[in-house]
Amino acid sequence: MFELTGQTALVTGGAKGIGKGIAQTLARAGARVVIADIDVEQGEATARELNGHFVRCDVTSQADCRAAVAEAVRQGGTLEILCSNTGIFPQARLDDMTEADWDQVQNINLKGMFLMVQAALEPMRAQRYGRIVITSSITGPITGFPGWSHYGASKAGQLGFMRSAALEVANQGITINAVMPGNILTEGLADQGETYLNQMRAAIPTHTLGEPEDIGHAACFLASPEARFITGQQIIVDGGQILPESPEAIE
């Protein structure tokens, strides 16, 4: 089950955090992993660790996205898997949010996903096989948090894109699905401070934060041949965070 030997996987934002967790899981399943990231030093280190390959990519650039896909195909001969994971989540409340703040989040999180998916579809269509997995979030589609309205909008937008895009390629052997993480203990989340982390732990029924590889396991399933009859869907990986009706429900 979930055997990916001989397949090539391109993971954007794969240098660290959730992206690295996804890349590690795909590599253990046998995939040739190509890390695409704007962070050259960390991206190269992760690629070496996974015996993979690194390509620098700014996902807001259509040329960079196409070049990253071309490099993945050059490395593996084919491209079976795209995990579109690049994302940022700077905090900005509405009264302080600038147009530039809004545009930056939408450009990286939403436009960047679109450009990567569009680029990956060309080789996938040619071979009539592909697995595309988008890293969305529970924030936006289901929950909200003060300071992340621009982030939430981008993550909800990803799911709207996914459903229509999945229909366009459903009869071409290509699936498009999403993983929706809750609070995962990444470098970025740790930067929010221990007070925030403790608040999040208290709000999760397991009273723990997820690990990047928890998202990797879900992505690996959606990227596998066994998931052939699943498209336009999302898997929530959040330790049950969205379940309680009140704090008393998880005391």
Question: Which tags fit this structure?
Answer:
globular; 251 residues; single chain; Rossmann fold; alpha/beta; 3-oxoacyl-ACP reductase FabG; seven-stranded parallel sheet
Q: Count of helical segments?
A: 8
Corresponding CATH architecture: 3-Layer(aba) Sandwich
Which fold name fills CATH's third level, the topology?
A: Rossmann fold
Strand order of the largest sheet: 3-2-1-4-5-6-7
| Poorly predicted parts | none
Q: Report how far apart the termini are.
A: 37 Å
Tell me the total number of β-strands: 7
Helices and strands, in order, run as EHEHEHEHEHEHHHE
Q: What is the CATH class designation?
A: Alpha Beta
Strand content: 5-15%
What is the helix content? 40-55%
Shape, per Cα inertia axes:
globular
Number of separate structural domains: 1
Indicate the mean pLDDT. 96
Largest sheet entry? 7 strands, parallel
Provide the gyration radius in Å. Answer: 17 Å
Task: Classify the secondary structure makeup into a structural class.
Answer: alpha/beta
Q: Can you say what the CATH homologous superfamily is?
A: NAD(P)-binding Rossmann-like Domain
